[in-house]
Write a structure and sequence with these properties.
180 residues, 34% helix, 3 helices, elongated, 3-stranded antiparallel β-sheet
Length: 180
Amino acid sequence: MEEEVFTDINGNTISLDCQRHSSFCREFTISSPKVSISKVMVFTCSVWLLAYAVFFFTQNTAVLSSAILITLGGMILHIHFVKVDHESLLVIGSLGIQVSSSYASGRESTTFIEMNRIKDIVINEAVYLHQIIYYLCVLLKDPSDPNEVSSVVPLFQSSKPRLSCLVKVYKSCQEILSKC
């Protein structure tokens, strides 16, 4: 078990945990920082102060109630659907690849791709806002023509690690795929 610290495309610190279960099985977990309580407090206080200012001039209590419900609902939705705590990639040589995302609320999302559907794992580049970013992706074989690619499955979509982190995962994945 080896853990290294990297940064994402925004410069935030992320950690890569590599576990070697066997020569044909490795697991990579990228963990993002936890939800910042200070940012949540600043956002909540800002919205509630704005709502109180509107209430002060309108004397309408629905404004305060709405502000409270909207911020609480927004935080719950953000924690359950947006904020990913960690993403993992489990590569099993003869079986396939499992991609998992764990959200701050405890919800997990898992996808399994069978090895016979995988053409290759590559590092691709894309234009994101005003910069070029790199991402790791799985190329899936076209069922009608095994030499063609039918679709691309991006990995580590939420953590968005930089190239140095992706290269480490890529080399290890290629090592396992070359043995199959």
